[in-house]
Amino acid sequence: xxxxxxxxxxxxxxxxxxxxxxxxxxxxxxxAPPSTPPPTASTTSSxxxxxxxxxxxxxxxxxxxxxxxxxxxxxxAPSTTRPAGATGSTRAPRTPTTSTPARDAPVAPVVVVDxxxxxxxxxxxxxxxxxxxxxxxxxxEAQSRxxxxxxxxxxxxxxxxxxxxxxxxxxGDVAQATRRLAKATTRLDQLRTGLRDLAVDQYVQxxxxxxxxxxxxxxxxxxxxxxxxxxxxxxxxxLAELGALSExxxxxxxxxxxxxxxxxxxxxxxxxxxxxxxxxxxxxxRLTVEVALRRRAVADTRLLAAVVGLDFPLVVLNAYVTAAKxxxxxxxxxxxxxxxxxxxxxxxxxxxxxxxxxxDADGNVSPPIVGIPLDGSNGTAAIGDTDLGLLDGDPNVxxxxxxxxxxxxxxxxxxxxxxxxxxxxxxxMYDAALAAAVYLxxxxxxxxxxEGLRRAFLSYNNDGSYAALVLDRTHGYDEFVIPAVPGAxxxxxQRPRPVTPADAPPTSADGPLASSTSSSTTSxxxxxxx
Length: 530
Description:
two-stranded antiparallel sheet, 530 residues, two-stranded antiparallel ribbon, 10 helices, single chain, mainly alpha
């Protein structure tokens, strides 16, 4: 989106100033009856406007978009004449559609959502709206359940890994004990056989005492004694070994039995952990989809949620900041900041919410905002139709159109595609904000200072009270600081710098709705002032 906006901004270089239009007066809302609050435009002087210079050759101007249906004609309000220099309104004050949220913590926690529709640096902006708060609550709850299932799954997998290691160790213990048992059993059988053979041999030899005649033979008696000693020794050793082997067999049998019992318990635990793992995996997969849908709902609802600390929703802030970033690249010497565009948008149309209008998630204003007929009545300039009613819905005379209140002839010269959708529409906040930034930057460089901003605002509407009001609102928006998002670029808060009169280039009085005021003029109120 930003690349398309940059391309359009570079390609459409306007070499001349647009025709003089009619801009609104930033007066207070005190003098109108409360019944008819139509959008109106302020006057130019009674002298005819000088014709604009012939534009230099350049690339073709963007073709304005055609609304799906012509916007309704604005209802005229009775004009009110005031003394020279006085300000006031010919309509009753209206409450803006987007209320100003309290300057405190947002109701819902900040959820940083990757959304290509919103600049990354706006990801941590605090937001508040019933729909957004519900979406965030649902997302947080779903994410909490997902985290729980992920923990259950991880615990089960870890337990299964530990059980597998324990099972390998226990099976090794069983195998080792089985080998010891087999060896001891074999040796035990050998000992028993040897002892049995020794006993048989002793019996065959007549026992250790021998026959009576041998006892009379002293030599035989000595040999028999030696054999008895040897047999006793061998028999004792074998009996001791027999006892030890019998104990080893008993221990091996017990070890095998207890280890197999542990293996049975491990298998039961493994079965339970496998069930937990599979159940957690299935729930994790289901909740992953749900969390993605909940995050999408957060992304959708946050665009229309009010920015905590400002008087407009995130989509409008995104449009203003996007436009300022485009100009920071295409005309860095201009120095315009988003707060100045917000000051214009607040004064012209209450950020696209004048009357019953509202801004949707794509920045489109509906129903369209159009000003009163610029037919010379009610103190307005007389501007004949220049667009066949395609932009303002009036085939007879021109009207100011959109949240930034461009007259059609000026819009054609400064129209920009601010959201990269291939269209230029004065009723779209992105397009209108970028067009306004381009228009104001004609008065650059130096729009990062009060003097430059005042000069630019006067070019938008040549009325000192209007410029003062917009500048004051710009300073108010300067107090808002965009919270930093780790890893994302952040526009630093910009403060006006002091300038000397020599820094200021000449002021141009023509603008999208430019007017000139004099002691003989009357003034009517723009759609968004007050």
